[in-house]
User: What shape does this take?
Amino acid sequence: MVTGVVVVWILSGILCAFIAQSKGRSVAGWAIAGILFGLFALIPLALLSSNVPQTQAAPASLPQAGKEIATVEQASAEVNYCSQCGARIDDTGAMFCKSCGNRLKQ
Assistant: This one.
Protein backbone atom coordinates (compact mmCIF):
# COMPACT_ATOMS: atom_id res chain seq x y z
CA MET A 1 0.00 0.00 0.00
CA VAL A 2 2.70 2.48 0.99
CA THR A 3 4.85 1.54 -1.99
CA GLY A 4 1.90 2.16 -4.30
CA VAL A 5 1.50 5.70 -2.94
CA VAL A 6 5.23 6.35 -3.28
CA VAL A 7 5.17 5.11 -6.89
CA VAL A 8 2.21 7.40 -7.70
CA TRP A 9 4.03 10.38 -6.15
CA ILE A 10 7.23 9.67 -8.13
CA LEU A 11 5.29 9.14 -11.36
CA SER A 12 3.42 12.41 -10.82
CA GLY A 13 6.79 14.13 -10.37
CA ILE A 14 8.00 12.69 -13.67
CA LEU A 15 4.74 13.63 -15.39
CA CYS A 16 4.97 17.18 -14.03
CA ALA A 17 8.55 17.41 -15.32
CA PHE A 18 7.52 16.36 -18.84
CA ILE A 19 4.60 18.78 -18.95
CA ALA A 20 6.75 21.62 -17.56
CA GLN A 21 9.38 20.97 -20.23
CA SER A 22 6.79 21.10 -23.01
CA LYS A 23 5.48 24.40 -21.65
CA GLY A 24 8.95 25.93 -21.20
CA ARG A 25 8.75 25.98 -17.40
CA SER A 26 11.26 24.90 -14.74
CA VAL A 27 11.61 21.12 -15.06
CA ALA A 28 13.31 20.57 -11.69
CA GLY A 29 10.93 22.86 -9.83
CA TRP A 30 7.82 21.20 -11.19
CA ALA A 31 9.29 17.71 -10.68
CA ILE A 32 9.83 18.53 -7.00
CA ALA A 33 6.32 19.99 -6.77
CA GLY A 34 4.94 16.83 -8.37
CA ILE A 35 6.79 14.63 -5.86
CA LEU A 36 5.72 16.75 -2.88
CA PHE A 37 2.10 17.40 -3.85
CA GLY A 38 1.40 14.40 -6.06
CA LEU A 39 -1.34 14.73 -8.61
CA PHE A 40 -2.43 18.05 -7.07
CA ALA A 41 0.60 19.71 -8.71
CA LEU A 42 -0.81 18.84 -12.14
CA ILE A 43 -3.77 21.20 -11.73
CA PRO A 44 -1.86 24.53 -11.64
CA LEU A 45 0.64 23.22 -14.19
CA ALA A 46 -2.17 22.38 -16.60
CA LEU A 47 -3.63 25.87 -16.15
CA LEU A 48 -0.35 27.69 -16.80
CA SER A 49 0.19 29.08 -20.26
CA SER A 50 3.10 28.04 -22.40
CA ASN A 51 6.32 29.99 -21.90
CA VAL A 52 7.82 28.85 -25.21
CA PRO A 53 8.20 31.70 -27.74
CA GLN A 54 6.02 31.37 -30.82
CA THR A 55 7.81 30.89 -34.12
CA GLN A 56 7.08 33.36 -36.85
CA ALA A 57 4.80 32.16 -39.58
CA ALA A 58 6.28 31.57 -43.00
CA PRO A 59 5.56 34.24 -45.60
CA ALA A 60 2.43 33.67 -47.65
CA SER A 61 4.39 33.43 -50.86
CA LEU A 62 8.07 33.32 -51.61
CA PRO A 63 9.54 35.80 -54.09
CA GLN A 64 9.63 34.46 -57.60
CA ALA A 65 12.75 34.31 -59.73
CA GLY A 66 13.50 37.49 -61.64
CA LYS A 67 11.80 39.81 -59.14
CA GLU A 68 14.05 42.22 -57.30
CA ILE A 69 14.26 41.71 -53.54
CA ALA A 70 15.03 44.72 -51.34
CA THR A 71 18.19 44.29 -49.30
CA VAL A 72 18.54 45.25 -45.65
CA GLU A 73 20.56 48.30 -46.61
CA GLN A 74 17.82 49.49 -48.97
CA ALA A 75 15.10 48.91 -46.40
CA SER A 76 17.02 50.70 -43.63
CA ALA A 77 17.78 53.64 -45.94
CA GLU A 78 14.05 54.35 -46.20
CA VAL A 79 13.57 54.56 -42.42
CA ASN A 80 15.39 57.13 -40.28
CA TYR A 81 16.26 56.73 -36.61
CA CYS A 82 17.51 59.23 -34.04
CA SER A 83 21.23 58.81 -33.37
CA GLN A 84 20.75 59.85 -29.73
CA CYS A 85 17.76 57.80 -28.49
CA GLY A 86 17.07 55.45 -31.43
CA ALA A 87 13.48 56.60 -31.91
CA ARG A 88 11.98 56.13 -35.35
CA ILE A 89 11.70 59.35 -37.35
CA ASP A 90 8.69 59.18 -39.68
CA ASP A 91 8.98 62.72 -41.04
CA THR A 92 11.93 62.82 -43.47
CA GLY A 93 12.11 66.62 -43.22
CA ALA A 94 12.22 66.72 -39.43
CA MET A 95 15.03 68.75 -37.89
CA PHE A 96 14.60 67.55 -34.28
CA CYS A 97 13.70 64.22 -32.67
CA LYS A 98 10.24 64.25 -31.08
CA SER A 99 11.38 61.92 -28.30
CA CYS A 100 14.61 63.51 -27.04
CA GLY A 101 14.91 66.82 -28.93
CA ASN A 102 18.23 65.87 -30.53
CA ARG A 103 19.09 67.85 -33.69
CA LEU A 104 18.93 65.47 -36.65
CA LYS A 105 21.46 65.34 -39.44
CA GLN A 106 20.07 66.33 -42.83
